[in-house]
Amino acid sequence: MHRTTGSTRPTRRPRRRSAATAGAAAALLLSLTATACGGDATTASDDQKLKGETITVAGVWTGVEQKNFKKVMDAFSEKTGAEMKFVSTGDNVSTVVGSKIQGGNAPDVVFVPQVGVLEQFAEKGWLKPLSKEVDKLAGDNFAPVWKEYGTVDGTFYGLYFKASHKSTVWYSPEAFEQAGVTPPKDYDEMLEVGRTLSDSGLAAFSVAGEAGWPLTDWFENVYLSQAGPEMYDKLAAHEIPWTDPSVVKALTTLGELFGDKELVEGGGSGALNTDFPESVEKVFGSDPKAGMVYEGDFVAGLISGQFGKKVGEDAKFFPFPAVDGGKPPVVGGGDAAVVLDEGKNANAGMEFVEFLATPEAARVWAEAGGFLSPNEALDLNAYQDETTRETAKSLVEAGDTVRFDMSDQAPAAFGGTQGAGEWKILQDFLRDPSDPKATAEELEAAAAKAWKKS
């Protein structure tokens, strides 16, 4: 697969972060040969060079995700002889890793789900810079934006192995057919489709408002399309205030949806009592209440795994549509592999990260399901179904226009704490979206406080 060309890279202004310089080409520690499938790579020999070594890996994954990631670890173990151990951190990665470092039991590799946490780890001196081999592979196989998000003060620390595509709107084909509507081409048309769905007896959207993070994703997609990538970068770095007219405009646009009881199932109060799995169930469960639910590609896992529907037939998606003549947004997220300096086997951990930078490693999880890779060298045929292939293709082809989840780039006090900061303020806005300007002022007060502390 070739990198998307024909567009210039937007100027980014990341907080305390600058793009890393390209590493010098070096012979790969894991020698690679091309396979017959789309340029995927495999090692030429199984030399068992890490036999007797133990590598401890920590990450947020549980359940099926953890099971599938262990297949990646098993592939590396089979190749190198290393014994692999996985430790689940839960959502509070920073606290868990910090306590393990203090206790002298630091893992060797950690998967960090937030840019802000990666920056925090780097500033505390916990991380080893990634090797020249990882740098080379990242330059060859990933759009530069992914490397940039893993870079702090010019040093490349984090390799994004697992990605998410947070610009997908999932819908019931049956509901659309009964209402006589088709997937919309822009945001205004999406609202019209929603009103037609409402007239047919279903609410337009099931909105997960019980936790604040889905509401931040709603805002980010509207803002990225409406204001553009450069303004998005400035707001993400708090280089412009949340009282900027572009923010008020995006809140006004979003408020038109949130404030319309025909569009939001149960209205604002009902949405505030709906958690994320319930929001998906209200569209794809046994007793549907709405025709659409917005969230990332990971919705597919709930549809098929929890509600027994077939993705691609019983459930489909369309890209989050363009707003006010802007471009369709592609908001992403992901888990970056970092190597802890305090790890007992950090050097072997670095070799594992080198493996993660190859399409060979990405293929293992892609074939298992529930995974998207930003690795452009991965053959899309590795994914299990056409819907996942379409989502992965959209993410990869977006190249440097992908923007990382804004709340994940913010200090946790603002962008990642239940009942506080942006999460709480947008929940209040969902309840009463009548004053976007006042909401913007509240957001700026909370952001200024959080950035000052950070």
Q: How would you describe the overall organization of this protein?
A:
The structure is a single chain. This protein has 454 residues and is of the alpha/beta class. It has two domains: 32-165 and 331-404, 3-Layer(aba) Sandwich (D-Maltodextrin-Binding Protein, domain 2), CATH 3.40.190.10; 175-329 and 412-453, Periplasmic binding protein-like II (D-Maltodextrin-Binding Protein, domain 2, 3-Layer(aba) Sandwich). It has 20 helices and 15 strands. The strands form four sheets. Strands 3, 4, 5, 6, 9, 14 and 15 form a seven-stranded mixed sheet that branches. It has a four-stranded mixed sheet with strand order 11-12-10-13. A two-stranded antiparallel sheet has the order 1-2. It is globular, with a radius of gyration of 22 Å. Mean pLDDT is 89; it is low at 1-45.
| Unreliable stretches covering 5 or more consecutive residues | 1-45
Q: Work out the strand percent.
A: 5-15%
Shape: globular
* Rg from alpha-carbon coordinates: 22 Å
Say what oligomer this is. single chain
Write the layout of secondary structure elements.
Layout: E1 32-34, E2 41-43, E3 54-59, H1 63-80, E4 83-88, H2 93-102, E5 109-112, H3 115-123, E6 127-128, H4 132-141, H5 144-149, E7 151-152, E8 155-156, E9 159-165, E10 168-171, H6 173-179, H7 187-199, E11 203-205, H8 213-227, H9 229-236, H10 245-258, H11 267-272, H12 276-284, E12 290-294, H13 299-305, E13 316-319, E14 331-340, H14 346-356, H15 359-368, H16 386-397, E15 403-404, H17 406-409, H18 412-415, H19 421-431, H20 436-453
Helix pairs in contact: 1-15, 8-9, 8-10, 10-20, 19-20
